[in-house]
Amino acid sequence: MKEVFLGLDMGGTQIKLGLVDREGNLMETEMFPAKSDLTIQDRLDELVSDIDLKIANYKLLGIGIAFPGIVDNQKNKIVSKYVKYTDAHKADLNSWAGSHWNVPVTLENDARAALIGEWQYGSGKGSNNIVMVTLGTGMGSAVLIEGKLLRGRNFLAGNLGGHMSINFEGDECNCGNVGCVETAASTWALPKNLRKIENYEKSELSKMSSFEYKDIFELASKGDIAAEKLKSKSLEAWSSGIINLLHAYDPELLIIGGGIMKSKNEIIPFFEKRINERSWLPKDSIRIETANQTKYAGILGVCYLSKI
Predict the structure, then answer these.
(1) 8 contacts 63 by C-beta, under 8 angstroms
(2) Structure letter (DSSP) for residue 171
(3) CA 296: distance to chain centroid?
(4) What are the phi and psi torsion angles at 60 (to 5°)?
(5) Which long-range contacts (C-beta less than 8 Å, at least 24 apart) are formed by 126-130?
(6) pLDDT at residue 143 in the model
(7) Domain range holding 171?
(8) Residue 254 belongs to what H/E stretch?
(9) Model-level pTM?
(10) Residue 31 belongs to a domain with what CATH number?
(11) How far apart (Å, rounded) are the C-alpha atoms in residues 107 and 67?
(12) What's the pLDDT tens digit per position in 243-280?
């Protein structure tokens, strides 16, 4: 019977499930609705029957969980009160896995899990000093130094790239800080930033009930002035945040992920230019790659962590 690890990537709208063997091969995958209106314990209990079906022909060695919040990987506890599963900090993951399958759990923040997935199986192979950022809804980040995840005493280290303040006189962020990268460059901040633009009512964006970065880049390419201004503001904010991360951690490789990287031919050259212009790094010394394992990096990452 094939031995596998089970990975769960707990997104805000969907939960990705995957079975990964010892060699890092993805054997089975499935996606489920997050149902984040439930308690996380209830949702996990609902998944038991689905998991049982998936592992019926395998020997389960362990479960890895990637979660979008601050986590204590030593105690397998979710530390932050996540906006979706507000009770997540109360979840007893060890008991859940132990009572149903008698296997250990590995818990990690989703950005760190994705970084491990890229390091072992994607764009980060062969590099041991990596900063990874994910752009879009916000700006997530994770850091690998000398082949080890950076976590810190309170499990925050390298993980809050989007909440570095780049403007102490800026807008208040949803985290309580002021002038964070995400106040200038995130999906949630786009409507507010649109309304700050003169004559924004003339933009196609003002006629849309909601919009994302793919709409921003598409309309900017068609000459929509407001979309172009939002794109420029976001690129500048991301660049500032990335340069701060590069100064702090001095990696050899910068990996950039997120659905927005469909516009990588615009984004990467912009970042390269700003890094060369404004950072202390030697010219062209940082290698920039797009994420390779875009869909299942988190699952591959927590399953890798489960076996070491």
Answers:
(1) yes
(2) P
(3) 12
(4) -85, 125
(5) 127/251, 127/252, 127/253, 127/287, 128/252, 129/249, 129/250, 129/251, 129/252, 129/253, 130/251, 130/252, 130/253, 130/254, 130/255
(6) 98
(7) 126-290
(8) strand 253-257
(9) 0.95
(10) 3.30.420.40
(11) 7
(12) 999 999 999 999 999 989 999 999 999 999 999 999 99
